[in-house]
Amino acid sequence: MSNDTSKGPEDLTVMSREPLIAGTPLGSMKDLETPAANFFVRNHFPIPRLESSGWSLKVTGEVERPFSLGLDALKEMPRREVLVLMECAGNRRGSVQPPIEGLLWDNGAVGTARWTGVRLRSVLEYAGLLDSAVEVLLEGADRGNQQGTTGEMGYSMSLPMDKALHPDTLLAYDMNGESLSPEHGYPLRAVVPGWFGMTAVKWLTGIQVLSQPFWGFHQNDYYVYVGEGYDNGSPKERVTYLQVKSLVTWPGRGRILTTGRHEIRGMAWSGQGPVTKVEVSTDNGRTWQPANLEDSESPYAWRQWTSCWDVSQPGYFLIRARATDQMGKVQPVQAQWNYRGFANNSIHAVPVEVRASG
Ligand SMILES: Nc1nc2c(c(=O)[nH]1)N[C@H]1C(S)=C(S)[C@@H](COP(=O)(O)O)O[C@H]1N2
Ligand SMILES: [Mo]
């Protein structure tokens, strides 16, 4: 990306500048931790430039003691650090068939970071939840116009109580050991392990404990599964958990290799329990070889995998990777179609050419 903002993302494929939307190139997904400068950005509205001085987090609603807290006070609460993968629900929308409208992401809307902050649970306990509490609303400071709607709106998402009180659901102020950058939500954002990125609300300014389920455009009309033959009026299922998925990160699409031995590399993850197996096929899915899976220090992070490929014949090949998770879920050849192309976890296939060596 060209340097028209001094602290902008460096190694990203920019799809939109305002709002900023940018993906991580597959070749940059080499490490367990994605550096902030390479971490995808998905904004709906312009970035609100918040200063730590005037900023505070307001906790209101169905609580005994509504309060507001500055950044320094938050940092004095018990710290919690978790390695968590984040993926946008629209990731890989670009290859959904039949094609659909929307941001045509390839595979770059995913990354893993070490998030440090406080448990959302601690903040809620400090405020004292009333029995009437049914959901917790996370409110961001960004505002703007959303295509297809009229008037300005903000960005808010609610969590059910079990997710809000989960010990690994965080309000994070650091990403990979450094303060959040403005792109990633400075000074505070939510991190919701196992769920797609849309509830990881950035630029948090408010936490509202609700006595009624929330209705909001992004939550109930946008990040929802709308299948083929959807009849208007029936409830739309909310997008929540990540699906089991893997990516081939090397070799890249269209790469020319020579006959011999190559190491195929990639990443794999899932939302409801870690990935337990990755298999690789180079013969159009006729046979599958188990890949080596690296250990994972966190159940919420991706796992790196490698597979050795001895190729003696020149030709065109498709390298496929297929992950299975602890729940026994396996990536499908073709993910179920939905109107916004969310959660596309169909098997990743990378075409390469092999030429005779020497
Ligand atoms: N306030 C606010 N929070 C937000 C968004 C947003 O537009 N505004 N985008 C969400 C979406 S859809 C995703 S995928 C993640 C992306 O986080 P990142 O930009 O840090 O990668 O942030 C989420 N949090
Ligand atoms: Mo997203």
Task: Tell me what you see in this structure.
The chain has 358 residues and is mainly beta. The protein is built from four helices and 24 strands. It has a five-stranded mixed β-sheet with strand order 5-4-13-8-9. A hairpin with a 2-residue loop joins strand 10 and strand 11 (178-179). It starts with 12 loop residues before the first strand and ends with a strand. Residues 1-8 have low confidence and may be disordered. The structure holds ligand MTE and molybdenum atom (MO). Residues 42, 88-90, 197-198 line the site of molybdenum atom.
Poorly predicted ranges (pLDDT <50, ≥5 residues)? 1-8
How would you sum up the major sheet? 5 strands, mixed
Question: How widely separated are the two ends?
Answer: 38 Å
Overall geometry comes to: globular
Query: Strand arrangement, largest sheet?
Result: 5-4-13-8-9
Helix count from the secondary structure assignment = 4
Helix-strand sequence: EEEEEHEEHEEHEEEEHEEEEEEEEEEE
Q: SS-based structural class?
A: mainly beta
Strand content: 35-45%
Radius of gyration: 21 Å
Query: Helical percent range?
Result: under 10%
Number of distinct beta strands: 24
The bound ligands are: ligand MTE, molybdenum atom
Name the average pLDDT: 94
As an assembly, this protein is single chain
